Amino acid sequence: MVYQALYRKWRPRTFDSVIGQEAITDTLKNAIIRNTISHAFLFAGPRGTGKTSCAKIFAKALNCTNLKNGEPCNECENCKAADKGSMPDIMEIDAASNNGVDEIREIRDKVKYAPTQGKYKVYIIDEVHMLSIGAFNALLKTLEEPPAHVVFILATTELQKVPATIISRTQRYNFKRISKSDLEKRMQYILQQENIKYDEKALSVIAQVADGGMRDALSILDQLLSYEKESVNYDDALKVTGFAARENIEKILLSLLNLDAESALKFSRQSLSEGASSKNILDELIDLTTNSLMINKAGDQENDSNFLTDEFAEKVKEFSPARFFKLITLANDALNDLRYTNQQQIPLEVFLVRASQNEEKKTAQTVSKNISVVTPAANNNDLQAEIAALKKQVVELTQKVGKISQPTASFDKDHVFHIDNSGSSSNAKVKETKEKKQVKKVKPVKKLSKNNDQNKKQVYHVLENATREDLNKVKEVWPDLQSVLEVSERALLDVLKPVAASPDQIVMKCKYTLWFEKASSDSDLMAKLTGYIEKFTKHSYDIVLVPDNDWLDVRQEFVQSHRQELLAKKKKEIQAVQEEKSQEADNPEVVNKAKDLFGDLVRVKD
Predict the structure, then answer these.
(1) Cβ–Cβ under 8 Å, residues 104 and 131
(2) Helix, strand or coil for residue 341?
(3) E strands in 403-495
């Protein structure tokens, strides 16, 4: 007989055998018992948490001829056919390889046909987020109003990629990660049924590596059984998974708490030589440190079982919670650094050295040194002389500021001078110059772009030729961009807003300066946005960006500098409208037509 993997052999066949999702399975069973079955379901959650299994059980229960409290009997012809995958009314579709419009259209054409063997036709679409936009659009109407005999079950691991229009047409069920204890209980049950001996510590390692996924846990267990078929033991689990031995992790943590960097490095290198990875060592250290903190701070007795020795639990109670917080923070930083280097051992060893330093002691020593320098201060006469010298420098600088030209003097109201204790006039001038430069940098209008004048000219050019028609055209297609941009790019539409448009350019104000700088430097994103605007408006526009804080100032400057031109343009438009009305009034054909329609009620006025 062909060997079958454990996760396939022990796939749940009833709702009660699904682990860790009791709220969802109870809801589905009650829906079947009460005959309140929706037309579409969406199962979302991490990998290996039971989404596809629940979908298959639910589809089987819908067509079972001998239901038992909402559970499929697994004995009737329909149940047996469903278990074998030969049930014609249950169709499983992999959206990753069938993600086109044609495949969805084929489904849409076939749903109208009645089921051949069961009561319902059930379509299970796995990894539904892989469908294209066109395929989702083709599915919308059918998903909203399918025939009474059709049920759709959509499954996905990435809910954020599913359009909101699809989610709103379904009943959504969020599958959670399976707890470590539930994973261990399920593995114990399977091993007992298979008559295989096991070490509970080995199952604990597997559950930790599986990260809440039952399929991952059973795959690792299968791998261990291939390594040693007679039993599942702790040492083999460490070798296969690459996790460090718990004894070494406890020794490393105690070394860090005792500020012994040498011992911590020795035990970590020992774990690395035994096959552990830097990431696994850091993960286990964070887990063990968190459990130690719970014992230390909250007296959580449940975490005692996570320690190998009783004396370790007693030793960690001697340290302050601040030490544990520091270790967790530094370990998380090291985990983040691992993503950016190929030398995986370096972030680990840097973490061990940093965590072994007594920074609190160094900080206290530094403060004490500073205090010792300040405490034996000079006598009162010296202090008074120094204060008098500083006052004299302030008077001199104030007089010099008064002689500065009027434009520069406008900054003097908010100007704060930092006086150099040396008292030399040259140093004072240098300080004054630096402070002026700093004040100019804070000026808010200087944020348009690297070339402020050039950007301002571009905005002026748009405003000179701006039309209401072009602006409305861009605003009308703005919501359509939400459907074509990626999720990470849609945030850009929330911070950008079109405020003026000419026949060839658009001015968009940016809500935040940080986003303005990011968008200005991202030429690919701007090109994509320009392309989509051209596609929807059937017209080509260039984009000119301006920060939100600067837009009002730029527009006000433009109005002031072009006041006469704007008034003349407005006057010209009014005259054109009046002339058009006058021509219509003088046109006898218009008057005669009006008389034909309304008779003697028409009165022609000049």
Answers:
(1) yes
(2) coil
(3) none
- C-alpha 420: how far from chain center: 48
Q: How far apart are the first and last CA of the chain?
A: 103
Per-residue pLDDT of 425-460, as tens digits, reads 445 444 444 444 444 343 333 334 444 566 677 787
Per the CB < 8 A criterion, the answer to whether 439 and 476 are in contact is: no
Residues 437, 255: Cα–Cα separation, whole Å = 52
Per DSSP, the three-state class of 259 is: coil
- E runs forming strands in 187-342: 197-198, 231-232
Taking the model in full, what pTM does it have? Answer: 0.54
Residue 404 one-letter amino acid: I
State pLDDT tens for residues 41-90.
999 999 999 999 999 999 999 999 998 888 999 899 999 999 888 889 99
Strand duo 171-174 + 150-156: pairing: unpaired
DSSP codes of every residue in 334-393: HHHHHTT-S-THHHHHHHHHHHTS-HHHHHHHHHHHHHHHHSSPPPHHHHHHHHHHHHHH
* Total residues belonging to the chain: 606
- Taking the C-alpha atoms of residue 508 and residue 294, their distance in angstroms, rounded to an integer, is 52
Helices (H), 194-342: 200-210, 214-227, 234-241, 246-257, 261-273, 278-293, 310-316, 321-338
- Contact between 186 and 53 (Cβ < 8 Å): no
